Amino acid sequence: MTDKLKIVCRGWKPFERNTLKGFAVIYLPVLRLTIEGVAIHEKSDRRWAQLPARPQLDEQRQLVRDDAGKIKYAPIMSFDSREVGDAFSAAVVAAIQDFELGITGADDLAFQ
User: Fold this and answer.
1) Helix, strand counts (H, E) of the chain
2) Is residue 6 within 8 Å of 110, Cβ to Cβ?
3) pTM recorded for the entire structure
4) Does residue 1 have a pLDDT over 50?
């Protein structure tokens, strides 16, 4: 990706469970795209963004669970490479930090 894509946090709802810290509403102005439900996780001083996912269902439309009983999720969208996904994640985390601090100009945050 050669052009930078601006990232704006339009909303933040804290929700703590294990590594999950909350959900963000992320806006990509150049695409006029709003992504609801971007999950933010934190572990050992590392924060990352996870694109929305849907719970997996079996043939009887029951939730699929792993061996520990946790619901399995399937991606709804994905990036072409790990590097692009990591850059998006870092830009989202920075946009949320600015949103929480009330910093204006958060739309200047970008990833490439």
Assistant:
1) 1, 8
2) yes
3) 0.79
4) no
